[in-house]
Write the structure tokens for this entry.
Amino acid sequence: MSLKSAWREFWHDVPGQRFGHRYERLNTRDHSTLGRVLRMALGIALIALGLVFGPLPGPGFVPTLAGLALLAGESRRIAAALDRAEVKVRSWLS
């Protein structure tokens, strides 16, 4: 699956279920251990980068969210937490 089609599938998924569905899609296919390790390492690095740049002016939360999204593909708990958070944030914004 290409990156573009994976993004499109994620974006058009039901809010509050996106991360859980992404977790299921990633874990039902054969993926290499190296790919999983790289996604987890990149996710952790992005979260650390976001925490470092968070107090500075600008969008420091963006790398943190991207890192969490990467980790959600590898952890059912993180995926469920992000699905719940998405629903709450959407209700606050509406």
User: Anything to note?
Assistant: The chain has a mean pLDDT of 86. The chain has five helices and no strands. The two ends are 34 Å apart (CA to CA). The first helix runs from residue 3 to 11.
